[in-house]
Amino acid sequence: MTRRAVVVGAGIAGLAAALQLHRIGWEPVVIERAPARRSSGYVVAFFGRGYDAAERMGILPALCERHVGAARPQ
């Protein structure tokens, strides 16, 4: 039986939660009240704990490829 979870909000926290749930075998359903994604994208502060979390999630390389002026840890 597949476990399903409702994730409220398609912001960075909601999408990260959905990704992690999917990786451990759950079927996440993301609910977002905005009618569409922003056409100009989203700005995410990418340093400290956020950088560490992206590294643990295995998405750091993909984020760095898509980020203009990506900060690298010192």
UniProtKB/TrEMBL annotation:
Source organism's superkingdom? Answer: Bacteria
A Pfam family of the record is DAO
Record InterPro entries: FAD-dep_OxRdtase (IPR006076), FAD/NAD-bd_sf (IPR036188), FAD_aromatic-hydroxylase (IPR051704)
* Domain FAD dependent oxidoreductase: start-end pairs: 5-56
Q: Which ranges does the record mark as transmembrane?
A: none
Q: Under what name is this protein listed? A: FAD-binding protein
The beginning of the lineage is: Bacteria, Bacillati, Actinomycetota, Actinomycetes, Streptosporangiales
